[in-house]
C-alpha cells in the first residue's frame, strides 16, 4: 500500500470543490478507504467553503472558548444553540450562515460580546458567569507599550530555563529573538487587536527586525551567555512582571510553544513566505495594520 496525492471533488451545499489530498492506494493502484485521510480531505474541502464564504473556522471557536474558560455546552447555552452545537462546530461541522455570522461577530467584537453577555447571562450557571466576567474584566490587562527589551529578556530567560531541563535546547540568538518578538506582535494584534510594543518592525533582508534589538546585540551570536551562571534580579523582575499579566503571558508562551523549537533560519524563511514581509519595501516599516490583516486571515494555517 502507498499514500499519494489524489484529486477528488466534494459537493458542499450545492457547490463543487476540487481537492488534492493524500489518499491510500493498494499495490494495484486502487483507492482504499482510510478514515483519517478521507476526513482530512473532507476538512480541506470544508475549509475551502469557509474561506470562499467567510465562514468561521473551528480553531477560532476553540481559541475564543479557551479565552473564556467555559465548556462548549456553556457557550452554546449563552448563544441559544442546542447543547452540542459548539462541540460539533469545533470538530469541523459547518455552521449555518446565520450561526457563523453570529459567532464571528461575538468573537471579533468584544463590545458586542459584552453587551450580548449582559443581556443573556441568566442562561448560564454561576461558575460560567464568573469565568466570563473575569475575562471581560481582564480586557485591558494587556499593556500596549511594553519596552521591547523587556520582551526580549522574557525570551532570554525562558531559553535559559528550558536549557536547564533539556540539554538539546540551543542558545537564543539575535536573529531568532527578532522573529519571536515579531510573531508575538502578530499574535497580540490577532487575538486582542493591540500591539505589545510600540517599536516599528522593519522589513530587512533576513526578515522582520526591530532596530533597538539589532543595536543592542549587533555582532553577537548567543544572547544568553551572560545569563548562564546567574540571572540578574532586575531581569527576573521583568520576567515575572510579564508572566503575571494574563494576556501577555498567554501571547509569549503561545509563541514560545509554537515556534521556540525552530531554528533562526527556519523562522527567517517562514517570514519570507508571508505577506507582511513580502509586500513591504525593504528597510521600510511593516505596518501593524498589514500584520493584523494577514494573521486574521491566515492564523490557523500559520500556526
TrEMBL record:
Q: Which SUPFAM superfamilies match?
A: lambda repressor-like DNA-binding domains (SSF47413)
Alphabetically, the GO molecular function entries are: DNA binding
What protein name is recorded for this chain?
DUF4065 domain-containing protein
One Pfam family it belongs to: HTH_3
Per the database entry, which stretches of residues form a coiled coil? none
Note the SMART domains from the entry.
HTH_XRE
Q: Where is the HTH cro/C1-type domain?
A: 61-116
